[in-house]
Amino acid sequence: MLCFGIIFLQTSCKKITSNAQEIETTFDLAGKEATGESLTEDVNNVLTSATDSLGLSGNREYGADNYLPSCAVVTVTGSFPDKRITINFGDSCRSINGIVRSGIMRINLTDSIRRPGSTATVTFENYKVNGYQKVGTITWQNISNSPGTKSWRRIVNNVRITAPSGNYWTINSDKTITQIVGVFSSTNIDDVYLITGTGTVTNAAGESRTSEILEAIQKKIACQWIDKGIVRYQSANHTATVNFGIGECDNSATISIDGNTPRTITLP
Question: How would residue 23 be classed by pLDDT, with cut points 50, 70 and 90?
């Protein structure tokens, strides 16, 4: 009986340890994917600013509000359906709102991005945002199908993010971006987008969590960060919920595991 008791305690301790590790991994991966989503929205800001300022949006005036700093060197070559934009941020290029980018972003356009049926493909070369490096491909497909609406299918394909610490993870997602404010505006300063869809985040050890947006993520061009929305992350035994807030422009979000007391994370 004594031996049985010892074995039972050892098994129980292993289960408790395994459960705690699963919770922490779920928390960690939820935070990593939230960071990845924030960085992807930054790419969207650069893409929108570049195409608007170059007159390649489709229904925006040439030279519309440009959030790209003067230290970003923009080169345009080719013609539709193979228009190419190269944005070189050099070793360190600080925007007016304090974002520091470096490296190169490459954009390939089949047509103006606000025209139905067009595709914008973005890749990266030694590209970093506030010290976070991005490698991989992000594609926007314009799926607008009625007058007065703008929407895109955004596919994030094996985008690897490396933090300043050297820790890295991989993001894959398939999401729909719908513009709800500024559709008819000639500039992008008042644009607001809602994001829905699913994704997967995988850490360096090969552990993954799936995500689903429960309440649409909101992203304003005028704000550096996502400011609203709720995302659920699922593991075998636990559920994490990331809450980006109620619409205030700040760099914080909260993560709750199984409805317990949330922890605050800081977005880059």
Answer: confident
